Amino acid sequence: MIFVKQDKLKTGMRLAKPIYDRKGVLLYDRNSKLTHQGIESVHNFGIIGLYILEPAEPVPPISEEDIEFERFQMMSTFIIKDEWDAIRKGQQPTSIASLVSQIIKNYGRLDHKINFVQSLRSMEDTWYKHALNVAILSALIANQMQLKAAETNDLVTAALVHDVGKLDIPPELQGDAAKEESGQDKIAKYEASGIKLLDAVYSSSPNIKRICQQSYRALNDIRKGKLDPATKIVNAAKVLMVADTFDMMTAMNDYREPSSEISAIRHLIDSPHQYDATATDGLVKSINILVPGAAIELTDGEKGLVIAENEEDILKPVVLKFSDNSVVDLSLGKKVGKLGIKDVMKTMDNRCIIDHETLEEAGFFRKG
Predict the structure, then answer these.
(1) Tell me: the pLDDT tens digits for 148-173?
(2) Residue 20: in which H helix or E strand, if any?
(3) Model pTM?
(4) Coil, strand or helix: which one is 150?
(5) Strand pairing partners for 52?
(6) Is 188 exposed, middle or buried (0-12, 13-18, 19+ CB in 10 A)?
(7) Which domains occur in the chain, in start order?
């Protein structure tokens, strides 16, 4: 699977991922060959490029849940754009409430982990997609933390609108300049302007405003290295901080290399005075990371494959080393010394390289 930018697309290329319109209607399925009309649609939709299958590459396995996840992402992005346009005009959003209900219905009541698949972002749509992902992650975490229904509703609403001010960030601040202290200070001012917009639009919803304000201030203090651990922050804002940071670190866009999921999780776990440990644990229990089939690199430089997940400590699964086919349980303490997971190797669209069925056929574990 390779990523091909919009201006390099050619007829006959096979799609690795489906394309939907703004209503979620399937336009082009996986393995479809690109036509002149299809390439024109990509231009019209403002898509910066597509994942393309290489000539002899089979279509990778994907579950119905994953397909629906991607369809929902595409469809919801357009809704968020329309709602943010209304907020920026000082108008009440009309579809946010129904989108919040849909997100909670789809992701706030699950009894299993999901594959959290990142979609590529352009400078034009990056903040809409970020808001959606943060809202989905927030719903997942809220479910694990068993937050009350009203609190979850306010949290997901806040997640969908908290970054509306970032729409005014100029392109020159979204590249390497965003990493510099001066650039981050300028971005923070745009964020603050967005918070003021929300003060007016959500004047009768103090909880939503509080979540946005507290998470913004705390994340800004973390960036400056001056967060006071004694600062009182409501649970929903703590969840938003974890979800926001995870998505910002792992997002795929056309101007910055993303961190891996395991790097982002390790960052959150290693910073309990900045990011609430319960919220981080809720995230770990919500998405698949070091699951069977994940190809990994160990701290000694060797490559391996996760064959058993560790529910107690996500960073210490059982792995099969490629060099000698030995099985290593990273939770065995002194027996493995300082050996651990350095990073995860995944396909370009962030999926495990080997699926569960393949591992079952190889006899590593049985179904059920």
Answers:
(1) 999 999 999 999 999 999 999 888 77
(2) strand 19-20
(3) 0.86
(4) helix
(5) 2, 15
(6) middle
(7) 2-53 (3.90.105.10), 64-284 (1.10.3210.10), 295-361 (no CATH)
